[in-house]
Amino acid sequence: METNIVKAVCPHDCPDTCAMLVTVADGVATEVRGDPDHPTTNGVLCTKVARYTERTYHADRLLYPQKRVGKKGEGKFVRISWDEAITTIAANLKRVVAKNSQAILPYSYAGTCGQVQGEAMAHRFFHKIGASLLDRTICASAGATGYKYTVGASLGTDLEQVQNAKLIVIWGSNPIVSNLHFWMRAQEAKRSGARLIAIDPYRSLTAEKCHQHIALLPGTDAALALGLMHVLIKENLLDKDYIQKYTQGYDALAERALAWTPERTAQTCGISAEVVVALAREYGAVCRDSGAALIRLNYGVQRTHGGGMAVRNIACLPALTGAWRNPAGGAMLSLSGAFPKDNAAMQRPDLIPANCQPRTINMSTIGDDLLRDSDADFGPKVEAIIVYNANPVAVAPDSHKVAQGFAREDLFTVVLEHFQTDTADYADILLPATTQLEHVDVHTSYGHYYMMANNAAIAPLGESKPNTEFFRLLAKQMGYTDACFAETDDQIAAVAFKKDDVKSMHFDWDALKQAGWKKLNLPAAPFAEGGFLTPSGKCEFYCERMQQDGLDPVPTYIAPYESVASNSELAKSYPLAMISPPARNFMNSTFVNVKSLRDTEGEPHLDMHPDDATNRTIQTGDMVRIFNQRGSLQARVRVTEKARPGLVVGLSIWWKKLAEDGQNANAVTSQRLTDMGGGATFYDTLVEVEKIA
Q: Measuring CA to CA, which residue among 540, 524, 501, 156 is closest to residue 337?
């Protein structure tokens, strides 16, 4: 038996971007484990990815091209050849192009975070054809925009410094579920005496293990940040030298923050004024003494109306207190902005026809947009859609409308997938894609500073093909002869990073493939002496770009669209706030069909506070209907104080077809967008809950 070890990378939408070692025996992957030599992976994988061979060799894996034979949504297909599939797709795209190429839409997200299989060849194809552009907003755009307005780019504290922090504020994040290697280092800091504080409406697995849990109302994070600023300013817990040298607009910020007394903050957030004051004092004291106060904020903060502003407000705190001076201080949201990607070389926007000005469609409003007819504002009706690395029927908000749009008989739909997902059921042509073990890719990370290489460990199963090969074949059938469509995956990966950028140290793809990973060349603390990547070079408390973009240039509070306080009429019918954070055993909608993980998760549950349950004569174990004006779903109730009063929590995201009623949490979420960045507002939702007889 011939056995070898292949260096690979976890491709999933997680900040950890783990280095993997794949054991291959006679061409079969027998084990996937964490690379013990990689400084952040440290030999540990999450429970999901540790079972990656179970997913790769799953009995339901798609292995052959298929075409639809039933009604859309029924999921009935027959096997066809790749030649028939490519010929059929090209013929339909040519038909649409003859009328208007912008009636073609790509739909993709982070089913793989790889730069090659994720976007490179696909972008080249859609640019060449003149298709509509997709604004990929569904996860991180609001927070990334607010953070960028403030500090200039997605940079922050190095993960490898976390264990040295003295205070760690985990804000809108549940790293036990979604950032395991951060949590491991936070635990190391805790053992060394650090205090851990969780700010989250829900007492998550992480919040349970912190010294303190602050359960604020959903969508009020910006107000809490302003209240903390108020106390820091009033009690002079500031680094005035840092403010004077490295920030802009302090006076305007101070005027705004001083209006947010602890009492006003407490009333808005649904907590006590004493909690606001104590947190500000503790944060300010640690910053004054050592600077080793770290805020780990995550995307849960930004999935409400004012989500972008909330991230901006929080991002101001380390500059007010000088916490950026200490490598273990500052803040972490995303570190993706450190990577000097050469998007122009990989994605080739120069291929867009000279006479074409593509429109952009927001992926978070796909439900409405697939149901729109042609008009002067919107442009042509969407007539063809190619879905890859995504499962919009399950994950996009207001899912009744999403399914209704995909059910259109006049919408030609192609889906590239590993399994027959909710979205795959609506495909006209369903194609088998390779998994991470079967193709080459290059990776950045948004949770650490390592460039990563994925080597193919095994040959593609069945007739599955990498995304890149599908788009090569389709480009050839469309008659595109540009040399870029003949480039191999290795050739694409070789231009992933700018070779003249000092951060990537004259990037060499062959060397990276052999090593598996290499750290970017960065300072220990990114903003210790300013160096912010804003137009002013400073942390911008007052941001002129925001004013130019029609936004308040000073940190403020933007109330949720749907809350008891901001929408009292709606709250009369739907008085409970609902959030749907990730379940521990799922990765968005990935891994839901892996039986061992689904069995561990059980069934769809709704966590509800005892007071709210008693008022509705609901007990643990009851089946309930969760509903609002957009739709409804069913779940089994767990009566628990993990959910604060007035809040219900449905851990997600289940495939709709695997739920008893064929629905998931997105039956009740809204297509309304965030204050900036055009992001989704998944956690800005009011519902009512009733017991099912």
A: 156
- How many CA atoms are closer than 13 Å to the CA of 267, on its beta-carbon side? 6
Q: If you average pLDDT over residues 272-294, what whole number do you get?
A: 97
Chain centre distance of CA 679: 11
Tens digits of per-residue pLDDT, 29-82? 999 999 999 999 999 999 889 889 999 999 999 999 999 999 999 999 999 999
Cα–Cα separations (whole angstroms), residue 158 to 182, 219, 246, 370? 10, 27, 20, 41
Q: Is 387 helix (H, G, I), strand (E, B) or coil?
A: strand
| Residue 24: strand pairing partners | 4, 29
Residue 519's SS3 state is: strand
How many CB atoms are closer than 10 A to CB 95? 13
Which among 398, 459, 359, 376 has a CA at the least distance from the CA of 24? 459
Q: What is the pLDDT of residues 496-541, one digit of tens each?
A: 999 999 999 889 999 999 999 999 999 999 999 999 999 999 999 9
- Listed residue (122, 501, 543) closest to 311, CA to CA: 543
Which burial class, exposed, middle or buried, applies to 503 when counting CB atoms under 10 A from its CB (0-12, 13-18, 19+)?
A: middle
**Residues in the chain, total:** 693
Angle between helices 307-321 and 141-151 (to 10 degrees): 30
Q: Which residues contact 208 (CB under 8 A, 6 or more apart)?
A: 642
**What is the CA 660 to chain-centroid distance, rounded?**
27
DSSP summary character for residue 186:
H
Give the residues across from 135 on adjacent strands.
Answer: 362
Nearest by Cα to 106 from 85, 128, 86, 88: 128
Mean per-residue pLDDT of the chain: 96
Residue type, 92: N
Residues 588, 655: Cα–Cα separation, whole Å: 10
The count of other CB atoms within 10 Å of the CB of residue 614 is: 12
Structure tokens at 340: 């000097």
Q: Which of 318, 292, 338 has the alpha carbon at shortest distance from 161? A: 292
Closest residue by Cα to residue 653 from 590, 602, 578: 590
- At 527, the amino acid letter reads F
Q: How many CB atoms neighbour CB 209 within 10 A?
A: 16
Residue 587, SS3 per DSSP: strand
Edge-to-edge, what's the strand order for the sheet holding 77-79?
A: 77-79, 66-68, 429-432, 412-417, 384-388, 104-108
Cα–Cα distance, 397 to 666 (Å, whole number)? 5
Strands of 28-34's sheet, edge to edge? 3-9, 19-25, 28-34
Q: Is residue 674 scored above 80 in pLDDT?
A: yes
Q: What is this structure's pTM?
A: 0.96
Angstrom CA distances, 30 to 44, 82, 98, 205, 521, stand at 17, 29, 49, 31, 35
The number of helices, as runs of H, and strands, as runs of E, in the chain is 25, 27
- For 605-641, give the DSSP string: EEEE-HHHHHHTT--TT-EEEEE-SS-EEEEEEEE-T
Burial 99-129 (b: 16+ CB within 10 A, else e): eebbbbbbbbbbbbbbbbbbbbbbbbbbbbb
